[in-house]
Amino acid sequence: LKLQTALHQALVNEDFYLVYQPKIQLTDLKPSGFEALIRWCDPILGQISPAEFIPLAEKIGLIWDIGLWVLKTACLQGVKWLIQGKTFERISVNVASLQLQRNDFVDKVRSILLETGLPAKHLELEVTESCMMHDPDAIIRDLKLLGAMGIALSIDDFGTGYSSLNYLKKLPIDKLKIDQSFVRDIPHDTNNTAIAKAVIALGHALNLQIIAEGVETEEQADFLRLNGCDLAQGYLYSKPQLPEELNLFFSQNP
Ligand code: G
Ligand code: G
Ligand code: MN
Ligand code: NA
Question: Where do the EAL domain residues begin and end (predicted)?
């Protein structure tokens, strides 16, 4: 209950901030974009992990407002970078399934793009497979609308949730993110190695780009590159960092 009260306060007091983790093209090691990740530093409780407070926010209905704050803040950061001459392909923002279930989500995204001035071609949304658990037809319709605006869509944590290959075929998405649980210990863990290869093959057969997350070693990166994985994200390249710490990771630095 204490955490719940603090979470409400955090939104009012703006105790949230975003960190950004670079995504790297495996073929040439050029930077591609950033994933925005929320952080919360409570004045009394200290740093609290999103793994803890995002599920709570979903439970108590705060995820909608927090999600809009994240989207708006990431878009404003993107515009700031562009104005500074720091170019990047896209900023990706995580979207909780509960956000997508609201029928005003697409309108909200559109108005945040307008309000902040970020061109849609610089935005990507990361959704999870679980978004398909309620009213998949409505979700597919909304994802198509977002895609038509020029926003890229990726499936986050691919393979850990409610996957149905039937939905994968229908979803208007651009990328699959191989969950970090499958990247761990490749190429030594034979099961994960097989899964990673299979996801890359499946994704490419469906014309999707593949990004691996949680890449921590050169060995993992080499394996992924050799097997055709397009992009990688992980501590090998960079931790999620504050905007001003990311100068190495723009396609073009001023
Ligand atoms: O950044 P970190 O590894 O601590 O994130 C832990 C979890 O919180 C991950 O599952 C991540 O997807 C989730 N998360 C981080 N930022 C956001 C956000 O802005 N929105 C949502 N919905 N989830 C987030
Ligand atoms: O669920 P999602 O994929 O959005 O969450 C990404 C989470 O993974 C973030 O909390 C981020 O801090 C964390 N992360 C990013 N890179 C690495 C990595 O190389 N190793 C580990 N263990 N975690 C990572
Ligand atoms: Mn993500
Ligand atoms: Na993940």
Answer: 1-254
